[in-house]
Amino acid sequence: VQLVESGGGLVQTGGSLRLECAASGSIFSPNNMGWYRQAPGKQRERVARILADGTINYADSVKGRFTISRDNAKNTAYLQMNSLSDEDTAVYYCNLHWRYYGLDYEYWGQGTQVTVSS
Asked: Is the CB of residue 90 less than 8 Å from the CB of residue 32?
């Protein structure tokens, strides 16, 4: 299984970016997809996730600004990020997870850098 993120880059404060995560390989359905981020000197934190049943969770810090979505037919997840601030600067990672016969299978992308600058 491979996850490839794209869409990161440099954006000004208040701007927007849309991240995309394309999954390929032997993917089990149903599955959960999520976005995490890691800023320099900080632990990786979950930003948003969308479960197989459509349930969506957001970190408090991004509620109202970020929107996660997925296209199951394309095995692709998206993260629309609006009203970006410098606190959103981090490497963003895509995560794919499923449980099969009690075993957890989890995969990560290589990460995409998001830099917010004033």
From this structure: no
